[in-house]
Amino acid sequence: MLGTTVWRRVLGVDRATVIERVEVDERENAVVAHVRPRRDSKRRCGRCGQVAPLYDRGEGRRRWRAIDLGAVRCLLESDAPRVDCPTHGPTVAQVPWARHGAGHTRDLDDLAARLVTHAPRSAVSELLRIAWRTVGSIIDRVVADGRAAHDPFDGLRRIGIDEISYKRGHRYLMIVVDHDTGRLVWAGIGRDKKTLEGFFDLLGKERCAKIRLVSADAAEWIADLVRDRCKRATLCTDGFHVVAWATEALDEVRREVWNAARRQGMRGFARELKGARYASWKNPEDLTERQEGKLAWISAVNRRLYRAYLLEEQLRVAIRLKGRRAIAMIHTWLAWAARSRIAAFVELGRRIRKNLPGIEAAMRHKLSNALIESTDTKIRVLHRMAFGFKKPEHLVALALLDRGGYCPRLPGRNAA
């Protein structure tokens, strides 16, 4: 039989665990290691870790699934006494090899949690020989363990707020990201004031007072809530959304010109104009030779549409610049838009003036929602890789696991 030191390393347990014996259970077709905590260790509550006196022997011996040994399942077996916790009452005692309420060892939990961020849940379920629903429970457990060990809202100073559509039918998640660490700190189901209030309720008045910068889109209800709950914070309107407004205005002008050409029987002109749509959307440095030709054609045949294109591109350059130069350029652009006599851009100018304090703040502090948009994309990848979720709570847990910094290392691997 292998020595205790070898078995300790194979099973992934530390010196707080005593291995009494190891045997093969022919009926279960598994290797069973009989273990117990060290006798000199104090009994603690499985939920909160408080030292507590013995209450009873519980339901006797129980087993925990461990990582398979080659092609054979592995189980740890031990007594499961209960302690009388001052806070939680009679509770199963803490064991060093597993989390409270788990039917698997800590290493198996960590392995499943790591794999599920890189592979579909069904594949993880088949590989580890655990139920599909069990994988979801493991994710919840690992995330809860990580958030209990470290306050996820500690040190928040600059945050970004955004929404992500996770399913057809206007199903959304609200997410909050820490600009300083890049972590996803919170996600909630819904896209309204009540949903976001849940985050600020968790944050509390003291930590809300420490928030200095908040980046978000121009939704008025977000601005009102931030002003009410984070009184010292400066709201920064995301430049990405401002450029999106300009793109929409340009597309509106293009459609007006296209419809006018069709009404006048200029079908060839309308067809050429429809083909110029993507050329007008792309950054100048990314244009192909054919698309450059399309824009040159527009400048020759319709000056109004070409001026709309130049207005959109000038705004894009200002948003990209940041700093004082960008603020000066925005004011120059607003004057140009006001006298352009292009209705869509006159209206866009009014919209930008209404949100100008937030736009200037974003330029001054060089803050945008680029990090949050990146997080949105990664959450969509997780959703697609998992082939959807029956409940959005499972997507929230998986997003926090992968983007919140709670994804554990593979068992037995040291930090790089």
Topology:
Elements: H1 4-11, E1 17-25, E2 30-37, E3 54-56, E4 61-69, E5 72-79, E6 82-85, E7 89-92, H2 106-116, H3 121-128, H4 132-149, E8 158-167, E9 171-178, E10 184-189, H5 193-208, E11 213-216, H6 220-229, E12 234-237, H7 239-263, H8 267-274, H9 277-281, H10 289-301, H11 303-321, H12 323-338, H13 343-354, H14 356-365, H15 370-385, H16 392-403
Parallel strand pairs: 2-5, 8-11, 11-12
Antiparallel strand pairs: 1-2, 3-6, 4-5, 6-7, 8-9, 9-10
What does this structure look like?
With 416 residues, the protein is α/β, with parallel strands linked by helices. It has helices spanning 4-11, 106-116, 121-128, 132-149, 193-208, 220-229, 239-263, 267-274, 277-281, 289-301, 303-321, 323-338, 343-354, 356-365, 370-385, 392-403, and strands at residues 17-25, 30-37, 54-56, 61-69, 72-79, 82-85, 89-92, 158-167, 171-178, 184-189, 213-216, 234-237. The strands form 3 sheets. A 5-stranded mixed beta sheet has the order 10-9-8-11-12, sandwiched between helices. The chain has a 4-stranded mixed beta sheet with strand order 1-2-5-4. A 3-stranded antiparallel beta sheet has the order 3-6-7, with no helix packed on it. Helix 4 (132-149) packs across helix 16 (392-403), helix 10 crosses helix 11 and helix 11 (303-321) packs antiparallel against helix 12. It is elongated, with a radius of gyration of 29 Å. The model has no long low-confidence stretch (mean pLDDT 89).
